[in-house]
Amino acid sequence: MLISGENMKKKLHRLLEYKGLKRLLKSMRLHVFVMFCLIGIVPILLMKASLLNNFEDQSVIQRGDMLRNQCNNLADRMGSSVTDGKLEIEGFATEMEQLANLYSGRLVVVNSDFKIIEDTYGLDLGKILVSEEVLKGFNGESSLTHDKERRFVELAIPVKEVVGKNVVGVLVVSSETNDIMQNREELNRKVVILQIGLMLAVLIAALYATGILVKPFRKVAQSLDGIDGGFLEEDLLMLDYTETQVLSEAYNRMLRRMKTLDDSRQEFVSNVSHELKTPITSMKVLADSLLMQEDVPPELYKEFLTDIAAEIERENKIINDLLALVKMDRSASDVHICPTNINELIELILKRLRPIAAKRNIELVLDSYKPVIAEVDETKLTLALSNLVENAIKYNNDGGWVHLSINTDHKYFYVKVEDNGIGIPQADQEHIFERFYRVDKSHSREIGGTGLGLAIARNAILMHRGVIKVYSEEGTGTTFTVRVPLIYAE
Fold first, then answer.
1. Most buried by CB count within 10 Å: which residue of 86, 229, 239, 347?
2. Strands of the 143-147 sheet, one edge to the other
């Protein structure tokens, strides 16, 4: 058991390490930090290569310019000493030696026969030298080449006679670039030190900047942690950046919606409890009244049992409406859409409700302007329209009327339910689609209202991506208008 416990601890420790690593890799701060580092460090690394290459190129160009200035003067004086087209350099040997020593290099003179007539190294005297640089020199062009591998620069300068400007020879100068490479290496060391310092500065700046950038998100986390079974009394303000301000505004709107939903839930639970308890209380009072009396006449039994049956029917209606509403909430995406003849559907609704209207001598009239075929959930739409028509009958005056009309265009179909009943006060109109909301509670109980019919109707219409509106004037009547798309959009 001890070994098993130790293994379990190790596994748990590894799991926590893995989760910690995974959480770190998904951290926004890490991603922003890496981005800052890449933006800051990559240019620093590229700067080194660019700086060193530029230094080397500029040093070689400067060396070439110095050699060209010195050797052009020497070549001009050699050209002025030419007699009968023959190049003579006897008087220039010492000066050539001095230049060779000055630039740690070698000077070679080639005559018109491509023969080396002077070499400060004394190695190739009398040999033939034919190269691209020498050929350019005899064509009157000077050329500078840089051999990076062998670390030297080579300059070829034509020697021209003063009279006629004919090229009688070529002065070839080679100079080592070891000193340039040494300076380059020294510069490289300094640049590396500078790079390290700059990269450390970038890392510190990135850590500081990312800490500032993610600070508003920590505020959100702390605020959410502060919601312990309740809601914040004050709005969250994050004015650090435009984005965090937008985030805080969205966050505050979400909290307000959550609070509204929570209040609505609490009110709904309270209303459900009250509505379900009221019929049970009435039944208990009636039953207790019968039990407390002796020799109760059969007529009283019948009256009380009739009242108990009515309360049971009322309880059953409340439960059925609640089940319909809850089912609609839970299955908002579970709709069974099929092409339906809306005219026939409304005629069936009216056929079922005409007996109820006839008891109070209420006239039901349907105006169908056009045949309508639409993609709807027949069961849910029937429930919605039935509730609207039933409400128009229930909250009407004896001998009144209820007019229905149906019309369509290329995109929607429209249903209007109009009555000349008691109407709805202006102050109550914005609340009538809320669950258990009743304008006149006593009158609603008299006619058996549960306060859920319009909430069910509204949910069913919204599930069809439709719109329902109410227009009413107290004492005059009420009109409900419904607009539903002909083609159901997922």
1. 347
2. 116-119, 105-111, 167-176, 152-160, 143-147
How far apart, in whole angstroms, are the C-alpha atoms of residue 435 and residue 102?
103
pLDDT tier at 1 (50, 70, 90 boundaries)?
Answer: very low
Task: Report how far residue 160's alpha carbon sits from residue 169's, in angstroms, rounded to the nearest whole number.
Answer: 7
> CA dihedral in degrees (140, 141, 147, 151; nearest 10)?
70
Cβ neighbors of 473 (< 8 A, separation 6 or more) are: 423
- At 312, the pLDDT band (50, 70, 90 cuts) reads confident
C-alpha 370/C-alpha 375 separation (Å) is 16
Residue 140 CA to residue 357 CA, distance in Å, equals 119
pLDDT at 230: 57
Q: Which residue has the tokens 């109707």?
A: 457
Q: What is the pTM of this model?
A: 0.45
Closest CA to 66 of 235, 179, 191: 179
54 Cα distance to chain centroid: 43
Query: How far is the C-alpha of 373 from the C-alpha of 353, rounded, in Å?
Result: 23
> Hey, what are 270's tokens?
């309270």
Segment 189-230, tens digit of pLDDT: 888 888 888 888 888 888 887 777 777 777 766 766 665 555
